[in-house]
Amino acid sequence: MILVIAEQCAATLRPVTWETIAAAQQIGGPVKIAVVGVGVSAVAEELSMADVDEVIVVEHAALEPYTPDGFVQALSQVIAIEQPELVLLPHTYQVRDYAPTLATRLERVLVTDCIGSKRRDGNVVLVRPMFQGKFVADVALDGPAPHFVSFQSGSYRADVATRGTVPTGVRTADVMIDTVVIRQHPGTPFKEAKQAVDLTQADRIVSVGRGIKSRDHLPLVQELARVLDAELAASRPICDSGWLPMDRQIGSSGQTVAPKLYVAIGISGAIQHLVGMKGAHTVVAINKDSDAPIFEVADYGIVGDLFEVVPALLAALED
Amino acid sequence: MALLVTCLKWYRRSWRLWRIELERETFDVDVLVVGGGPAGLSAAFHLSTLQKERGGKPLTIAVLEKARDYGAHMLSGAVLDPSTLNDLIPDWAARGAPLDTLVEDERIYFLTRRRKIPFPITPPPLRNHGHYVISLNRFVKWLAEQVEAEGVDVFSGFAGTELLYENDRVVGVRTGDRGLDRSGAPKTTFQPGVDIRAQVTILADGVRGNLTKRLIHRFSLDEGRLPQVYAIGIKELWEVPPDRLAVGAVVHTVGYPLRFEEFGGGFIYALPEGRLAVGLVAGLDYRDPLFDPHVAFQCFKRHPFVSALLADGQMIRYGAKALPEGGWHAIPRCHVDGALIVGDAAGFLNSMRLKGIHLAMRSGLYAAEVAFDAVRSGDVTAAQLGRYASLIESGVIKTELYPVRNVHQSFAGGLVSGFLYSGFSLVTGGWWLSDPMPGDAGHERIKDLDRYYGARAQEVMAPTVTIDRTLTFDKLTNVHYSGTRHAEDQPSHLLVHDTDICRTRCLEEYRNPCTRFCPANVYEIIDADGGEGKRLQINASNCVHCKTCDIMDPYQIIDWVPPEGGGGPKYEGM
Amino acid sequence: MKIAVCIKQVVTRDWPLRVDEREKWIHDRDASFEMNEPDAYALEEALRLKEKHGGEVIVCSAGPARVGQVIREALARGADRAILVESDELAVADAWTVATALAAAMRSEAFDLVLTGLQSDDQGFGQTGVVLAELLGLPHSTIIMEVAIEGTQFRVKRELESGWFQWVVMPRPALLTIQSGINQLRYATLKGIMAAKRKDVRKFTPDSGVVVSRHRILKLYVPEKTKQTQFVEGSPAEAAQKLVSLLRQEARVL
User: Fold this and answer.
1) C59 and C142 share a domain?
2) Sheet of B249-255, strand order
3) pTM as predicted
């Protein structure tokens, strides 16, 4: 049996949970979902639409606000009772905060940041990126169950998770939490504008290179970034010339990024740039030169004049 | 109001400069060695040997090395004559020196575009019996460890940027400031350079060393000498299927891709584990302003003989470095009050035997002897340090370099005259009708477009070659494999004193040869912002510290200074 | 205040890497190594806390003998002494195995604070610190931007997703994983380098039973591109239309 740990925030289900459910369903076999928190019955109801065996609500006053100590206490008990083979979690900031502790508490290990799974001789093998996305490793699990696995956001498609024909059963698990043992005392979350641009967190990036020819043409690319709700980035020559600040530089002497969408405009694709963005999920390249190395890593390419293609893209996106 | 602002700015700047001086560390040693290459490290090691042999108050010794790791900036073919190492560290084998490949098989070929013609015999000076094919990077790493084990401080990541003087005596070296941004303003991590004061400073800053260059200029140490001339060596390390070339095979080529008027040749050395060191040496005294050594190297690899050796292989490292080729008569005076010059910085390279490491090490040994006595006696004047010159005069350095003193200069007349003279010199011990044979500085030999190409000057294109990124590579891809990295936010370390010349005179006269002779794509001529004319773009962080630009720029307006310490290539395995 | 910082030696970022013959790791014989950058930020934070509150900084690392390079670097920047768990296998081991080895060596010292980087540039598990906290019985918090010491408590600023932050209060002693880029890394000084040679590096060897990974790499390889490059043809307007619909329907990134 695979146990999926759902993630919720302020009694709202976080969509990434559906990706983890899809991962569990791909591996196969019975699947259960656990959701942890306070006032999560609506979340549980939503989850009961999934084609799984059961949804388990793990509710206790001490589980709000989230603390790693609280969650580890609660989930240790649930896992001890449910005895799953695999525990799957989405690789979120919260999971990074408590899942390693949970696994260690149960004398097991967690394999983080996986992007897929396969079967080798009937056993589950995980696939995860290594060396900042330059390589990928097939990882086999040793030792006794349960094994803990976290999946990178975007590695599975949420809409692939199958829904059941009828809602599945929801049950509340009884957990005991010793509040004395909760050592973290979190305050209320607050929002703050980040000081520097963090391209590594961007889901979409529009990147510009020498093909733009002059800083006067930047507004064209900036508009595309705005329309796509993307961050603006650049290859080295643009930042060297001072047309964009250095914290927007992608490449071996700048940032390494792996967004869902990377649009490279007028970038030739020198290896120094490629090492900074090869891990992107979908790469679109627009360049006049069909031999430009950027096309070797692009999923979609348009060989053409960016001064014609980009305005056409803006028009097409408006529809 | 503007006046007030200006006063405030001046005050802040003075305060900041004063604070820098206040914060500047100083540090005293007896002997400071600038440069952690074979010459510098040999000097440091021998000093501690002398210390052990002769006892007395321990000498304090420090070595400065601009690379982040020992040996990271070391690049050579290389075939090592172990004679100096035998004297310096007799038990080198027991200490694990990385000398494990004896030269087994030597061949010389004359290459035409498609064929190779073997030389019937290997001329005696080129014979490498008893020599080792090595990685200079690994050798220097090992040597640095030996030096450290003696208790000598080797400071890697520190570049010597200025000589310190008292009147006309060298009293030490100032290291470069760290933590300056692109405009030269201090960042929060700013650390001013350190003043290291020494009784004797041994300059081992390598080919066209930045400190040696200034010292020579200040004291006219090259007066009455021939101008130093150089070559550029471009090298790649390849991994090929195991039995391509027997381990220990040493192959040298002349001819294609170089023309008869160009000095140089190719080399292929077989190392263990299926590795091949492949490279081309091209004299930096070529005539053709459109010559591109990197393109020539790609052509060398595409020659059927070479491409067959590299087929199905993988290029794993790339690098380039200049070599001093001027020979005996181009060596400047190497001693002044308080300082000595050793190694490639002085130019102790045997251009006939293509060997410089053992002589660099020998000069380090001599310098150690002289420095030791000078410090002990308290007399570090040029008179006392001049014993260095006598050691060079009377020792193996002269014995080896004197007979080949005119070799490089003889190639000024082309390949044929060079070979004829070299053969002749074997018998006559280097004698010639005019001795020394006259020689010009390389950057003065380069002809302008009109004179070289005549009527075709405007339409002739610079040579290019097909780049397939399997056998041949473009410079930018190559630079990636040199492991070169510099902190991005720092002032450019390539000082071009008049960039107007680049876009006007040089563009017309030579078509900006820097864009071709730099093996790292540092210099580019691109359209100026606002679309009017061209401008020079300097990609300083690509620099592999080869010094070719400082040497070869026809107007001599490029000054190479060390970038922030720790930056540069990482020649692992080279 | 006794502050421990766990640092890892990794292959230099953006070093041209190749998979080795056994296809289970990269070819690192002729590689250049450096301190894992996220750990460098943790070290810098520790040095700043020491400057502010006094105490000592002990740097801890695990791996083969060459790890001495990053230990020396840390000592040269100002750490006071070091703990090294020497073992070749630990260079490629999983987070739990490494944390167990470190915990065995660190347990006897009563640290007030243990800092680690967020994750390593090579394996990128991002777990070693958190597992170590559990093994040492310390409370922890992750992705920390700021550390304040208030008597017997720590008040730390934790980063959440999408620009949200949160202050968390914890008792001493504790373990924190530090976010990268929160401070400016200092240079080692000449005096620092000289002093580093005289600083204590205590070496441990892991118990033979410990170095047994709980998961292992079957194969390391270059990710194959799942699709060939699809060139979108036509006039700019046509190509743009086609591309947008491909991005919407096929790649589903819009």
Assistant:
1) yes
2) B116-118, B105-111, B249-255, B264-271, B275-283, B230-239, B314-324
3) 0.93
